[in-house]
């Protein structure tokens, strides 16, 4: 008896330190990396650059794998996937086994494995790893998708996150005075159909988010959303094409801004993914201080790599021509458009020793070089400072008017350019045909006369 008690005691002494060695959340966090949109079947050289940045935390923002399957784009034929006359969806979901296999492939990537050894990896999902392109609450495979994402993220078997509906979660890093809270949203599990102007988060997640924002304070609060929160790209690319974003659910977005504002929480900023390019946007009229949204997309997928190399400069020109009242233009950008259409990741550096502490947020390329960035004291994200800033004539409230408020000619510049080019082409062809016809007529008449 006494012997077995001694053994127990011995085991306890052995076990306690190893239990404590679990993630030390009180360690100072000063480097956080994030990214989205990684094709598990493609080479992923970006991990080398991310490991080089040496983050303590890495955040997945969705499309962590491309789980769904894609039919070839066909305008004609039996299975048409493109155009208003299409008869089959372009994307269809993977089976549970297929999705598991894709996650295993992603996890086995040597670069990613190296990062996992060095950094705490957390994350949420977007549509392609949730199940299928643009999917919401109606997707029937979401229960097994949730299990597979949480397996991929090494979530504990008994974690409450495995028992809730959706993958939203929050983390508090750092000691008193240097705390960083990370809130990961789930923009899929409860999302109403696009164009419904319904809910993105669903009631339980809204209540949870409110508790998280009103709960214990932190010097910085990073809210991770798979889809963009600030930019409304669709307003300036429609009717050519539309992308998902919070702005497509205007009432839900307003609710988010109101909640942040009324929570009086300091230091809130958004990070997002999804769109296959990187940009830094900022909305100055959502709360009492600027709300930044730093979009990094993708780790492998990018708008420029999706077209032949000769068209890359055209993509850059189009990016530059797309009007945006929210994007932050700064001399730090590699391109004039201040968007970045090649693979990239997000890098957040906090200088806790500066007085007052400062944060630098960058988008970095495959070599780890900065392509865009902003830097400011964290204290700039404080309700009380807003008015002082305004009085001093700072750039506060520079990013207030919405995309939908742009003058018509500016807002639809891309569409006008597109349809204008087509019109010019059609008119040119028509003129050519008319010219040919009258030439032939003239010729035949001359022949008859002769
Ligand atoms: C956790 O990190 C803090 C700050 O670096 C340090 O003071 C503390 O001793 C660490 N705790 C453990 C259990 O390693
Ligand atoms: C991922 O990469 C593979 C291999 O390059 C390619 O065949 C596949 O189409 C890519 N998937 C996506 C969604 O881009
Ligand atoms: C974003 O753009 C879409 C498409 O033009 C529009 O329906 C929506 O109301 C806009 N959202 C906001 C918040 O302006």
What is the approximate shape?
globular
Radius of gyration: 26 Å
The mean pLDDT is 92
Please give the share of residues in helix: 25-40%
User: Which strands sit side by side, in order, in the main sheet?
Assistant: 6-7-8-9-11-10-12
- Treating each run of at least 4 consecutive H or I residues as one helix, how many helices? 13
- Tell me the fraction of residues in β-strands, as a range: 15-25%
Supply the helix-strand structural class: alpha/beta
The biggest beta sheet reads: 7 strands, mixed
- The CATH topology of the largest domain turns out to be Purple Acid Phosphatase, chain A, domain 2
Class of the largest domain in CATH? Alpha Beta
Task: Say how many strands there are.
Answer: 15
In this entry the ligands are: 2-acetamido-2-deoxy-beta-D-glucopyranose
Signal peptide: 1-21
Protein name: PhoD-like phosphatase metallophosphatase domain-containing protein
Keywords: Membrane, Signal, Transmembrane, Transmembrane helix
Domain PhoD-like phosphatase metallophosphatase: 33-284
Explain how this protein is built.
There is one protein chain. The protein is α/β, with parallel strands linked by helices. It has two domains: 22-411, Alkaline phosphatase D (PhoD) (Purple Acid Phosphatase, chain A, domain 2), CATH 3.60.21; 412-450. It has helices spanning 2-20, 46-53, 96-108, 110-118, 127-130, 142-152, 203-214, 234-237, 250-263, 312-321, 383-391, 408-411, 413-449, and strands spanning 31-35, 57-61, 69-70, 91-92, 120-124, 169-173, 180-184, 220-225, 268-272, 278-283, 291-295, 339-340, 345-351, 358-364, 370-377. The strands form three sheets. The protein has a seven-stranded mixed sheet, with no helix packed on it. Strands 5-2-1-13-14-15 form a six-stranded mixed sheet, covered by helices on one side. 39% of the residues are buried. It binds 2-acetamido-2-deoxy-beta-D-glucopyranose (3 copies). One 2-acetamido-2-deoxy-beta-D-glucopyranose (NAG) binds at residues 232, 234-235, 238, 247-248, 250, 253, 402, 404.
């Amino acid at each position: 008896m006494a012997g077995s008690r001694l053994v127990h005691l011995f085991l306890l002494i052995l076990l306690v330190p190893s239990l404590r060695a679990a993630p030390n959340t009180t360690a100072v966090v000063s480097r956080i990396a994030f990214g989205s949109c990684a094709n598990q079947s493609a080479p992923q050289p970006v991990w080398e650059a991310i490991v080089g940045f040496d983050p303590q935390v890495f955040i997945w923002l969705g499309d962590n794998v491309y789980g769904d399957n894609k039919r070839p784009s066909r305008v004609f034929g039996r299975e048409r996937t493109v155009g208003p006359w299409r008869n089959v969806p372009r994307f269809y979901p993977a089976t549970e086994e297929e999705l598991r296999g894709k996650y295993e492939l992603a996890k086995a990537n040597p670069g990613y494995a190296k990062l996992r050894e060095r950094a705490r990896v957390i994350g949420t999902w977007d549509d392609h790893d949730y199940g299928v392109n643009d999917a919401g609450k109606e997707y029937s495979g979401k229960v097994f998708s949730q299990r597979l994402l949480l397996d991929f993220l090494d979530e504990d078997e008994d974690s409450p996150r495995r028992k809730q509906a959706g993958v939203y979660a929050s983390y508090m890093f750092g000691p008193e005075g240097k705390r960083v809270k990370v809130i990961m949203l789930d923009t899929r599990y409860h999302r109403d159909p696009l164009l419904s102007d319904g809910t993105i988060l669903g009631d339980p997640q809204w209540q949870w988010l409110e508790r998280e924002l009103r709960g214990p304070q932190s010097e910085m609060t990073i809210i991770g959303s798979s889809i963009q929160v600030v930019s409304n790209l669709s307003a300036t690319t429609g009717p050519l094409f539309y992308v998902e974003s919070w702005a497509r659910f205007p009432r839900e977005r307003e609710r988010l801004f109101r909640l942040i504002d009324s929570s009086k929480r300091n230091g809130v900023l958004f990070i997002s993914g999804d769109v296959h390019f990187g940009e830094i946007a900022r909305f100055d009229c959502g709360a009492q201080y600027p709300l930044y949204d730093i979009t990094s997309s993708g780790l492998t997928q990018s708008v420029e790599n999706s077209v032949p190399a000769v068209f890359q400069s055209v993509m850059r020109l189009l990016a530059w021509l797309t009007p945006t009242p929210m994007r932050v233009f700064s001399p730090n950008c590699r391109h004039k458009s201040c968007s970045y259409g090649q693979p990239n990741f997000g890098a957040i550096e906090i200088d806790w020793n500066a007085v007052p502490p400062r944060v630098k947020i960058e988008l970095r390329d495959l070599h780890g070089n900065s392509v865009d960035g902003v830097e400011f004291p964290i204290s700039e994200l404080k309700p009380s400072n807003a008015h002082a800033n305004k009085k001093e004539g700072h750039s506060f409230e520079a990013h207030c008017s919405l995309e939908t408020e742009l003058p018509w000619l500016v807002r639809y510049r891309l569409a006008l350019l597109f349809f204008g080019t087509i019109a010019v082409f059609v008119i040119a062809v028509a003129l050519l045909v008319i010219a040919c016809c009258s030439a032939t007529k003239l010729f035949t008449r001359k022949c008859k006369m002769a």
